[in-house]
Known about the structure:
By secondary structure, this protein is mainly β.
Amino acid sequence: MSKLILSLALSLMVAAQAGAQVKVEKVEYKGWRNSYRVSNGQVELVVTGDVGPRIMRFGFVGGQNLFKEFAEQLGGTREEKHQLRGGDRVWKAPEDPVATWAPDNVPVEITTTANGLIARAPVEPLTNLQKEIEVRMAPSGTEVTVLHRITNRSLFSLEYSVWALTMMAPGGVAITGFPPRGHHPANLEATNPLVMWAYTNLSDKRWVFTKKYLALRQGPNNSEAQKLGMFNPNTWGAYILNGEVFIKRANAIPGETYPDFGCSFETFTNNEFLEMETLGPLTKLPPGKTAEQVEHWSLHRNVKLTDLTDDAIDAAILPLLSGSAIGN
């Protein structure tokens, strides 16, 4: 066997071994018999096949679920109205009380891949949209790429944004970064919107503002809803809970039109959960075309955040973003 053929054979063997490290198996998950666990031995996530598309769990193998779960809704299917359930989902933005909240309570088609799966819902009768979530897990480490897609299955062009919403378990704190800061009078132009809702209360103690960061605490004893949105070309959010950190990242395109006065990131909380959300640009899609919002997820252990200050966040969170396009 020539050296070239031997080298190619060894490369194929290494690639096959790397791909084989991601295992996809059908499991029962909290009443849903047709669920799928994706794991590389270090982290695991669970996608339901009985409803969705939903990613209901993401965590270290055998560890805590960083995602919120509504216990009374687990295992349910074919409900008439939309169910919060928890986990990660894909919605159409801007938010509409009817079309956005269309139920996702029927079985989805699951297609397994070499490093994950695709969960594809039937076309929604209410909206003529078809939603899917694809999971691509790295063969080692904690990185997962999650692709949220919405396809226009109507007979007409429709304009919408793909909205990726992740509901986090209670008791933690979410942090996101502003675009790079500057100084007056050297930097005179506006850099980004900070968007409020009618129920936003900036005096609420769950909000923490620093020069470089925005933080929001989840408080199980405070039922008043809070929400803010912003734009950052390097969109990211980090959620810290019990010494572990979940990070989601996405790229936003300056100059494109985004929902909600130009938001690429939004965060919401009440007494039950906290939500970190990224949004794609508003796009007019002809029939049959698909819009996609790509997020990059990671998990991190033994993170000690001593305070919600620039210095403390720089020390605890910035190293977790190193090697990516995200920065402050």
